[in-house]
Amino acid sequence: MKKNTHPEYRQVLFVDSSTGYKFVCGSTFSSDKTEVFEGKEYPVCYVSVSSSSHPFFTGSKQFIDSEGRVEKFMKRYGKEAVKPPVVASEAEKPAVVEKKKTSSAAKKTAAKKKK
What we know:
This protein is an alpha+beta fold. The chain contains 3 helices and 4 strands, in the order ββββααα.
């Protein structure tokens, strides 16, 4: 195996920027910034969402977005994205086209041709 082709795998401190929650995990992430956590110095990576702030893990229904993506979406699409689809009346719906049923004789001829 070639040497010096893989990035260095080490312990990295991840910090949730919305809640301040910190955890250490192995990663190849490289950073110039370092922080001391539990008496040891680690390279640090700031993340916007972690298990301490994600609605799935916290059980909350509202998503706290520190980067403003939700507000940006709501400004752009507003209530249009929330509206349910409009159901057309029965007269306006296009007619459903049925598939042609093949006869058993046609199926037998197709099976003979495959052999």
